[in-house]
Design goal:
The chain is mainly α. 82% of the residues lie in helices and 0% in strands. Helix 3 (37-52) runs parallel beside helix 6 (82-105) and helix 10 runs antiparallel to helix 11.
């Protein structure tokens, strides 16, 4: 790709991002000579840069435009890059998940919800069911941090369902532990104990030492809450 054409792509992308809503198609139609695989690839590269800069709105806009081009234009060179769109979307969703985890660690559960829900939508769109489960678990943790325990249970149950469907024992144990903690927070200690015991069994079976220690700690808390001191110890 020569510099002149690359500059033309960037100018067109800038025009698309700054135009009035609904004018994008008109602008694209005015530049038929630039509607090729190079433009789509440049759009996706800029979209990825926007994710790094946490400008998710611009990234979404460019992703959508690239997808529309792949669906509307019959140019063979554009279609050739179509197979790469899913991998770009996967990258975007993974970045959103990383961002969501960091936001939760920083005490920003509302921001975590936004990031993880966007990731969930993308994972569903590209058919990555395993990562859908991961996103559901993160959403459940965000709701737990917001003390919305019923919603935390709802999303962790969906996470559990996918973990069992995909036979991912580690994620199954994690989802059970998160469910147990949510039930503990609601004061439903017997439910909490049941789920933590299941989580503990799986953690030991898959040799997940961190999961094992977490389950044991949460079991101790739940037993202490119902005055079963020996079990708690």
């Amino acid at each position: 790709m020569n510099n002149e054409r690359e500059n033309a792509y960037y100018q067109l992308i800038n025009a698309l991002l700054t135009c009035d809503v609904g004018k994008e198609q008109e602008i694209l139609n005015a530049h038929p000579d630039l509607l090729d695989a190079g433009l789509v690839k440049t759009m996706l590269q800029v979209a990825d840069e926007m994710i790094v800069q946490s400008d998710l709105k611009t990234s979404n806009q460019l992703m959508n435009l690239a997808g529309q081009m792949l669906g509307v234009y019959a140019n063979t060179s554009i279609q050739q890059i179509g197979g790469n769109l899913s991998s770009w979307k996967q990258l975007k969703a993974d970045r959103l998940m990383q961002q969501g985890v960091q936001q939760l660690e920083m005490g920003q559960p509302q921001e975590t919800l936004r990031s993880s829900q966007q990731a969930l939508t993308i994972f569903h769109e590209i058919g990555n069911i395993k990562r859908e489960g991961d996103a559901l678990g993160l959403i459940g943790n965000a709701y737990h941090s917001l003390s919305e325990y019923d919603k935390a249970i709802e999303y962790n149950q969906r996470h559990l369902g996918i973990a069992r469907q995909t036979q991912d024992r580690t994620q199954e144990g994690l989802a059970l532990g998160n469910l147990g903690f949510a039930y503990y927070s609601l004061g439903e200690y017997n439910e909490a104990i049941e789920h933590q015991q299941q989580s503990l069994l799986i953690a030991r079976k898959v040799k997940n030492r961190y999961g094992e220690s977490t389950a044991l700690l949460n079991l101790g808390l739940a037993y202490a809450a119902i005055n079963k001191s020996n079990e708690a110890i």
